[in-house]
Amino acid sequence: MSMNDIRMALRQGGEAFLDLLFPEDGLCVHCHGESATEQGLCPACAQHLFPSAPPKCERCGRPLKNEGPLCGACQKSLPPFAGAAAPFLYRGLAGEMVREMKYHEKKRYANFLGDAMARCLQALEGPRPDVLVPVPLHRSRMRERGYNQAQWLAARVSLHCGAPVLPNALTRVRETDKQTRLETRAREKNVHDAFAVRKSRAVRGKCVWLIDDVLTTGATARNCARALLAGGAAQVWVLTATTVAWRPETGRLEDWEEA
């Protein structure tokens, strides 16, 4: 880990800790016009959230419509990760928060979403994480953007569950096109073999929870999980802020906006 990596991790962890101790102003994190509930939103804004509710696919965690135990996508191709979860669907306010956080550096949304992810993790019956690994950006994208929203989310989840964040355990070994421009098959091809474990000792024998902002086709999560398992991880689970649903009437994943 370079000194720049250490400084970034300390800065992000320190900011998240201060945010947890001293919330901004007690107002709604979205509209700032009304007093927030204990979870950060006013009642009016909270109506625009769509929780990821049961029944869900036992493998990818996507909501189902009276179908199971696996969604059609997992029946076609079982992911290498052991399970996945997300507190919200990628639509409405949660989808807007993800986009604002990801493209416009709105860290307050990372705090809100990370808190929700932590509550989601605490409610699961699955194994507790030994380590949290955010999905990495390629170094060129990181230089361009200056931040990785998955690291923000991981730092916030870590405050609640106590598992350490390993921001450099996984690396993106080649630059890829933005997934937003691609259809399902092209997304898988785009990120195939794009990830590798940098130091296998960090994940060997560990239950790793991969952290990201949204699970759409699952191409990124699958390829990250393959790399982590190849690097010696005992299990890989996926925790995202949002997910899309499986639609049995169309036999495909729910349409998503740019994610």
From TrEMBL:
Sequence ranges assigned to domain Double zinc ribbon in this UniProt record: 17-75
CDD domains with a match to the protein in the record: PRTases_typeI (cd06223)
SUPFAM superfamilies, alphabetized: PRTase-like
InterPro entries: ComF/GntX_DNA_util-trans, DZR_2, PRTase-like, PRTase_dom
Domain of life: Bacteria
Pfam families xrefs: DZR_2
Annotated family: Belongs to the ComF/GntX family.
The protein, known as: ComF family protein
Biological source species: Luoshenia tenuis
